[in-house]
Amino acid sequence: MAVDVGAPYATRVRQALADDGMRTALDRATGHLKERRDRAMAEIDERRLRDEAGAVRRYAIERLPDLLEQLEANLIANGCHVHWARDAAEAVGVVLEIAREHEVGDVVKSKSMVTEEIGLNEALERSGIDVVETDLGEFIVQLAGESPSHILAPVIHKRVEDIAEIFRIRLNTPRTTSPAALCAAARRELRNEFLVADMGISGCNFAIAETGTICVITNEGNGRMVTSLPRVYVAIAGIEKVVRSAEDAVLLWQAATRNATGQNVSVYFSMSSGPRRRGDTDGPEEMHVILLDNGRSRILERGYADAALCIRCGACIDICPVYREIGGHAYGRTPYSGPIGAVLTPLLDYDIHAARDLPFASSLCGACRDVCPVKIDLPRLLLDLRSVVVERGASPVGERAAIRAYSTVMRRPAPYRALARLAGWLGPLAGLLPPLSTWKRDRGLPRFAARRFGALWRERVRDEEGAAG
Ligand code: SF4
Which of 125, 213, 236, 309 could be 208's S-S partner, Cβ–Cβ 3.0 to 4.6 Å? Predict the structure, then answer.
């Protein structure tokens, strides 16, 4: 992996910026996704869709406890087993317990960021269970031994040439950059995995309270196979995924796919409302739903309810000028990157010291807010989190000292004048001295004016008085 996700933030960014292949891939893919989104939005009344989608999500988050109770009751009535998990360890424990009970040896998964969040694959593998990702992007990431770099397009950081090489090495396929040939190779490989798997695991795009239904959006049909072929199906849903009704879910489905890939709707929308019933020709014998908190209640308690509105469409990521340069791995060990990742990661982790740099990984240009289909004011959330970083003393020591010194100088005319005079004398040489030398490493430094504003002003007043007298 070109970017070491465990390295400090500055190192990760430097590694990302030095990776020309990754930046080419990102540029191509995010540009393409943005064009598709723009075309899809030009066909409809975007403002109306955003108003309606935002209202539906707000309704769900404001009534979260009631809707979750309703969801649980209807899932149970449909024959599902419902588990509540406070954190990642509890959720993983539940999955391992189900796997043990059913003597599961092979698991197929559809793409799920929440399972990345709780480190499920690693836990299953440690228990001797084979896990295969069946979404094409996730499958490639798994073959490469990496982590996803985008919530929707996990392999967005790779060029087709890179993928061809991974397939050649890992699957022994002839070297080809034909997307059709690569897809066919993946399909051949995965088909058997679906047939032998004992357990299917998916995330959840929406959980419908009124009907007790888990909805999964995919374009490849793998979601349908994962949820219906193996004898046991486990869905893991963040508690914020609940929505009131099927109508609300369908509206959000359209909002998510138009913004994600520019499609009217995705190719597949799998709805699971319980295990196989008498007379059904397919479906799992047992269905489990794990409702995961893992920091989500804390997000609401701390006044960041807007962050819980997210439907993970990825539009804010594709448009973000920072993400488009550094990619998802520069955000560190988190499945959530881009502007929404810079908000969610510190909030979910709670340890603001660990993720202190992420709220600053934004130019605050506002493009993310303008595209968000549920109208999350991401720049405001990022600014709030920046204040938290500073208030908790989590900003770097050097930075705090520099800001304190700057504030001292700016509040006292004499040192300010002395410094401004010195900068004027030094001119471009000032950029060679710390802390400006560090600043200059990554940014341009404006030229210091040879003469200070105060001196120019006094001269002008003198000239005007001279002319008047
Ligand atoms: S914050 Fe908005 S734009 Fe970004 S992924 Fe979530 S819903 Fe989509």
Answer: 213
